[in-house]
Amino acid sequence: MRTIFLHLHPQKVNASALRINRTFGLGGMAALLIAVQLLTGILLRFYYIQNPASAYDSILFLKNNVLFGQFVRNIHYWSGVFLLMIAFLHFLRVFFTGAFRGSRRVNWWFGLVLLLLIVFANFTGYLLPWDQLAYWAITVSTNIIGYLPLAGDALRTAIIGGRELNGSTLQNFFNFHTAVLPLLMVVLVIYHFWRVRKSGGIMLPGTPDNSEMVPVMPYLVFREFIAALVLLAVLFATSALFNAPLLEKANPVYSMNPTKAPWYFAGVQELLMHFHPFFAAFVIPLLVMLFLICIPLIKIDDTQEGHWFISERGRQTAKSTAVFAIAVTLAGIFFNAWVMNFEIMLPGVPAWISNGIFPAVILLVLMAAFFYFHLNRKMLTKAELVQAAFVFIMMAFIVLTVVGVFFRGKDMELVWPWNV
Ligand code: HEM
What pTM value is reported for the model? Predict the structure, then answer.
């Protein structure tokens, strides 16, 4: 364990590794935010009471009667949101600099686990205030788990400890949020750091044998210190200006309209509005997950590791794929909402065909046509093609999330953001 800490940094690093656009310091920022989460979480723990009768009042007490209580709660809330965003950006950075192959692939896989842990840490924390927002957001999200084939319903019942949210749900979420997930996260982050060292530091383009080596102290440590200060300043300013949400106490008989999942699940919730649940909650997420897991295993002979977007052509293709993904996703959403809904149009056909296989095939044909065109016209390499597929998935996911969060109003109808 001691060597793990001692070897967080080598004594010297390659001068070119210090350039800001290598990593943007995102991994270090994520680590700092985890530390902030742990610290503020421990403080909140002194006042929070984890049962449905008192949870909400304990938050009110913290807010109204404890010195800096609201501020600490805000920091905890915002550092959770920032952590998720920064870990996601770090994941994009690692992908687009091709830093996930060879010895780095283990870190890619553990990174994916870390990303999931961060999502679940946010998710389990969401319920704890036990207000209307928390109660109904967790209700719709856990309903999504119920759509998983075969074990979905049993899994949902096990997670929430019954048929509806209750005291056991709060206890389960509390245990995961304050013990299981933080412990796993800390262990994995330490291992993650150690693996970066084992791979010889961050990914750099080419073999910079002859480039200058500089001591970590002060060159790297000074930069990390500045980045940490800037991040903390932004976090504190956000926490001073915007309070963590708290609506009225949870009321299981009065549901919110619209009832929305937390923002990081808004993409899946949006997908559920267009695809049969078997596809939206199971097939599509599973395929995306498998794709992400398999990426480092795809044999590629043309990689330009360490170069952003592989090549100039890779960058251009990534841009055009992003535009294509935005257009197709938006068109699909509007088409399904306003023009044609296959489930209504084909009443005799089982929903998993009309609302599942049908739109999935249309999407696949469109994607195949786009990639075939690119492959033929631009003679893309395998690495560039994999990158384009990744861009498509990420852009579609971002568009679905933005529409779900900002453009769904009462009864989940499409509205302008100011009417949400
Ligand atoms: C709590 C979350 C995470 C923390 C604290 C963290 C931390 C770090 C740090 C400090 C580095 C060194 C370079 C840098 O700052 O970018 C790094 C590199 C790396 N991370 Fe993460 N990371 C996290 C999540 C992830 C995720 C979600 C992935 C991808 C699925 C990932 C994959 C990698 C890989 C492959 C490297 C090596 C990159 C290279 O050699 O250039 N990490 N991580």
Answer: 0.94
